[in-house]
What does this fold into?
Amino acid sequence: MNVENLLRETLADMAGEQEPPPPARFLPLLSARRPARRPNRRPARRRGAALAAAVTVVALAVGGTITVRALSPEPEPGGWPQAPAVPATRPQPERTYEITVGPGRRVTGLFGDLARMTGKPAESFARAAEDGRALGLPPYAKGRLEGFAHPGTYSVAGSATPAEILAGMVARFRETADRIGLAAAPDPLDVVIIASLIQAESPTEADMPKVSRVIHNRLARGMMLQLDSTVLYGLGKHSVAATAEDVRSRSPYNTYRHRGLPPGPIANPGPAALKAALHPAAGRWLSFVVTDPERGTLAFASNEKEYNELVERARRSE
It folds into this structure.
């Protein structure tokens, strides 16, 4: 007999009783101690099961619809059986990796570096660099990323887009700029340009304040800077020194032909170069020469005579 028929019979029997049935009639353990009060009455154990079924059905009556389901099994010793514990599924953390960008890289080389480190196309970084506003470039950058992609080590999420990676480098630049007080300079862009020249021309960080002083002194005197690094940048070349043909180019970055600073930064300077641009060493130097190319030794001169002597020393060391 199914649960619905058993319930129907139980309710019909109970409707004919004049008084509520004693609780013992529904307790299987006590039913044998009491005599039956009516002939042909169903055993108390069956009635008890039926009442349990009625309770189950009523408990499941929701919104006028009765749902009938099988009864729960009898409890095991010590309580109802427990469902096996199912470990909660936790989302796996997103994979991250570190990228390190050295100081002095041009953006063209930077895009290739980032492509190799992230597996994203170099062209995607070049396209992202076109939207300076989205990258958070300061207004004085004039929309150009060169000089503002700060070197350093970055923790990058696997899902990061090229724009997000470059924006993180720009944000690092702004942090450094705030720390060294770049905004207080009369022209912050000039400082970044000078820092990029210092980064390109200095073999070591110890040389940077002196190189900065040479640049500041030449600018103050209206002298041409005559830096090979700017000439090579304008020609898109990577070399140690410019050739005679290179210095005859009409590029606006040719500081052998044009006075003053080049139109923009020629690389992405690090914090040391930016500090040196703001705080040059004290001195009257007007030029410098690499006297030992293998060791990267710089020597500084305050006049033409000293400069010629340094050039001769460099030739002897070749």
Summary: DSSP finds eleven helices and six strands in the chain.
